[in-house]
Every structure is written in C-alpha cells, then in structure tokens.
Amino acid sequence: MKINARKHLEIRLQNFIFTLLFLGVIGLLGWLGTRHSMQFDWTAGGRHTLSESSTKVLGLFHEPLKIIAYARDEKLVREHISDQVSRFSRSKKDVTLVFVNPDTQPDQVREQGIAERNEMRIEYEGRSEEVMEPTETAIANALQRLAHAKEQHIVFLEGHGERSPKGQANHDLGQFGEELARKGINVSMINLAVAPGIPDNTDVLVLDGPKVNLLPGEVSQILDYVKRGGNLWWMADPGDLHGLAPLAGQLGLKFLPGTVVDASTQLLGINDPTFALVAEYPAHSITTGFDAMTVFPISAALEKTGESEFEHTPFLNTVPRSWTETGPIADKIKFDADKGEREGPLVIGYALIRGGNADSKTKPEDEKKAPDDKAADQRIVVIGDGDFLANAYLGNGGNLNLGLNIIHWLSQNDQFINIPAKTALDKTLDLSAMATVFIAVGFLFLLPLSLFAGGAFIWFKRRGR
What is 61-110 written as a DSSP string? Predict the structure, then answer.
C-alpha cells in the first residue's frame, strides 16, 4: 500500500502523541511512587509482615509511640532496626524511630542506663520499656509490658511438690513462667508454711497439683483469701485433693472419680488414651476467638454441686467419645456405666465469677487485707488437669495461648485475651537417613551420569550421520 505524504505525517503525529502520553504515564507513576508505597510479602509464613499477635498488641495504643535505638552509625545494623520498626509504623502511622549514636552522645546513654549494644527504648505517655534485641517478637513483648497499666503479680503455691514456674524439668512450668515474664507479668512463689500470709498485691494465686497434704493452717489461709475476693487458679490432678476438699466445697464444685480417657485418640496419632482433647469451646471471655485444639494429659472431670455464691461457666469440654475410667488403664478399656463411669462430653474446666470483692461478713478491720483492685468482680478458674502447661506439653496445640488467656482473664486484663504468643517460624527441614542418602546419590552421581550419558548418546548419533 502506497503511503502519501499526508498519511505519513499522521503516523508520525500519532507516534509523537503516543510517546508523550507514555512518558507522561511513566512520570505520573514515578511521582505517585514517591508519595505512596505498596509492599507484598510472599515469604513462607509472612516473615517480613507484622504478625497477627503484634498487630493486636499495637492496637492497644491510641497515642504516639516513640522508639529510640542506641546504635552506632553502622549501615547494616541501622537498616535492620529500621526494617523491624517499619513493620509497626506501617500499621500505626504515629510510631517514630530515632537513632542515638552511643559514641557521640555518651551522656544520654549513661543517663538512660543503656548497657547493651543496639538496645532500644520504647516511650509512651511518660512510661518506657527496654528492648534488648531488634526483633519483632522482642518489640511486641515490650509493647505488651508497656500496655499494662500496673504491675501484675502471679503467685504460685510451693512446698507440697507443686510444679514450679521456674523449673526446667519436663513436669515443671518453667517455659510458661518465662513467657509470663516476657509479657511483663511478675511471677513468684510462696510457701504458706513459712510466709506470714498471701501478699496483699497478689493478682492471682495459682495452685498446681500438690503431691502431699497441705497443713490445716495453709488451707485456712487459702479459704480466707477466696472469701475476701482473691482471684484463684486451681489446677488439680485426678485422685486425692491433698487437703483441698474444703476449697472445692467453698467453690461449689465436685471432682468426679476416675481419669478422663478417650480410646479413639489413636486415630490422631496419640497412643495414650489418658490424653483428653478439647476441640470446641463454649462462649466465654477466656475463649473469645480461640479455635485451636488443646490437649490435657491425665485429667479429671468436674461438676457443679450444692449452692454457691459463684456463677459457674464450663469453658473446657471434652469430646463426646470420652468417659471417666475408674479402673486400671491398661490393655483394652471400655466404658462401663455399672461402675459409675460418666460418658462424655465432660467438663474439665470451670470459670467462676462473683460480683464484688468481699464477703458480706468481712469485718471493717479486715478490709485492708483484701487483695487490691478486685472491686469489679472476683474470678476463679478450676481445671481438672495440672500438667497441660508443663514443659513437656506446653507446645501441644493451643495450650500456651489458652494458659495466657486464663491469666489475662483472672488478672482483669481482658484486652490481652487471644493475643497469641508469637512463635518462631520453623525453617528447618528434617530428613530421614534414607532420604538423605537418596538425595546425595541422586544429585552427586545419578544426575551427572544421566547428563553425561545423554550427551554421549547425542554425540554418537550425530557422528554416525
């Protein structure tokens, strides 16, 4: 087709207009890019995105947050700190980061008591918390400590073989105690046979599976603590209550005889039928938004009995296929109603609440002894299992997060409920010995030999042409 001069001019004009428009669009996109940003995190588990737990903690702050990083003028270090803090600033626009060089401003470092290299300090409404390492988990834990309006004191009873919140044995609660400390909750232990009494600043008293009988005087102190409105978490193992039967009567609860079993747990890879599974949760503040399965090894069922001033709410129910086994747990077991065994679903956890913080018969001179800050209501949790938070079982299902929810509910900190503990992403690959050998032989021998054989075959074929 012949193109005349007019047609040629129109084509050149169209190309010129297209070039102008294209350059205009590119310039507009560049201008927008300087004022708006968009990021996508395609890594496994979203390693570069603020986790759900950190986002929930950040939502507790309504005023500006200031983060001061005491780091030398080293590019890689400061870029790493900026990257970690930027995850929070993208979710909360008034999070600011300021760098202080310890080499050029030593007076400020000494004044703030900064001792660790690359230490950070978070300031909020006149309060502050230190962060020893620039990671999302460390910053989120510091924020959660900062969000507490006052110090929280969780006191564990000891002296009777109870599981220790500072012990490292499989049956102890050391890892749970460490997690509480990271959340800014003070954990201590008390022996009522030695101490003059339960401290007045106790937010929650924890009784976890005593192995020997408590002295009558110790039981009296616990009963008086409950009578005066103290918050309590009682975790009891099946069998003997070791002198705490009066406490069960005071709370209007009864422990059913036997151990909760579920013979069908083998379908889930659990060979021990004494592991009780809780997969669904009744409506309660403790389990708001909580949907992870929890595992309770060797637990007892409970039921409400008699009259009580407390409002009882079951919040941990086993699956329907469970029952209370009263006989020896060996070989094949089966439900036997003639022996008084109860069929599931069974209640293994009750949440109790009572309005007001003191018994009506409390004398005026005793009011000063009542635990602080319980005026709203008194909260008590009773669970028929003492080791679901033990070091050996803490990582099973949602056990850890359930334990944190219970502590927050008991200490009147409902805003922290269902903020899960952030766990490190498992980036390791575990291979069996056979798989390791197969991969080694495949990549080191079979693959090179197959490439060599293929090349030799093609060479001989072409040579024969």
Answer: --S-EEEEEE--S-HHHHHHHHHHHHHHHHHSTTEEEEEE-TTT-HHHHH
